[in-house]
Each structure stands twice: as C-alpha cells, then as structure tokens.
Amino acid sequence: MLLKLEKIKKTYQSNEKTAALTVLDLVDFQLADEESCVISGPSGSGKSTLLNIIGGLTGPDSGKVEFNGNDLSELSKDELAHYRNRDIGFIFQQHHLLPQLTLIDNILLPTIPFARQKQDYDSLERARELLERVGLTDRLNHRPGQLSGGECQRVAVIRALINKPRLLLADEPTGALDSDTAANLTDLLLELNTEEKTALIVVTHSRAVAEKFSIHYRLINGKIQVS
Prior knowledge:
Elements: E1 3-12, E2 21-31, E3 36-40, H1 47-54, E4 62-67, E5 70-71, H2 77-87, E6 88-91, H3 103-108, H4 123-133, H5 149-161, E7 167-171, H6 179-195, E8 199-204, H7 207-210, E9 216-220, E10 223-226
Helix pairs in contact: 5-6
C-alpha cells in the first residue's frame, strides 16, 4: 500500500470564545501504488485539509500518515521537504505559474533542489516530452499571460510531474475552468495516471469530474465514506 491514513483528526479554532471545528474526524484511508480516486464533498468539508496532511504541508492533531511504509511524523525537516518535492506532485485550483518566467522555466522550478545531484533522466528533455504530450510544444518559450486558463493548468500538471512523483494531489484542479475544459483536463489527469504510473487523488465538488473516476469517496461531517 503506497498511502495509509489511520484515525486522522484535525480541528480548527478561530478564537477562545468559539467551539473547535472538527473537519476530519478519525479518518481512515488507503491508496495503492498507481491507483486513482476522487474525493468529493461540499465546500468546507475538509477536502483540502486532507490533501495538505497527505502532502506533508500540515500535520494532523492525531493519527498517522504512512507513505511507502514511512511515518511522516518521524521524518526530519529535510526529509519532509524531500518528500514534498520529490514524492508528491501538487496541482491547485489556480495554476500559480510565475508570470515573469517562460513555461519551460516554470516547469523546471521543482528540479532546482536536485540540480547538482545525479539524475536518472534529463529534466529539460522530460519537460519537452511532457509539453509535447499535452500539445504545448510550440509554447515552451511563452509566458503564462499569453496562454488560456486551460493551457496554464495543463502546464501546472506538467510541473507537478517533472520530478516523477509517486503520488499526484490535485485540489479542485478544474474549479476555475469551463465545463468542456474541465472535462478535458480530468481526462488528461487520468491518462497521465496510467502513462506515468503515478497514483492520483483528486478532490472536487464537481459531480461531472467525480463521475469519471471508478473509485469515489465522499467527505461529509469529518467522515470519509465510499460513494
């Protein structure tokens, strides 16, 4: 099992006068290597919080997250940073491409920490191959402002894949796109899940996106259940 969550709990409290809000209540979850799934639920249900915990961006109040047999809570600061940058690929609702950089430079940003290490692949060549895969080879020297929203989001997918992560986390990746572009991007994610042999978790409130996945979970009132 690539990913295993056991009894994850997370609460938030805005101030001492308000009751704590439990967004994740003893959540158990598993994902196999190269598997894909979608997690849906209403806005504010804790979907993004769950992805942030899986990705090592924040920790749970209690419970355990294991990735490839390693407990994230036992990793050092440097090991956790390596996990986030090498084992995990992040895609968000907004593409977060740097406007002053070309597409190819945006894609190569996650490779900078490993630039002096021996690589088993050439990052620039991989970037070019992935851009060709999504039909943007002729745009590699363009800047984000010269592309459509859907094109920028495809570049964000490529950037998330550049370090060959074991797991891709997509947080409402189609939320800022029209329905046709959203459908195309979802299909692309599922195709790359197979081609790149990368596990995939997509969180969404879109029924159309959720229906494209064979494994569908719902997060409601802090609990996760098979839909």
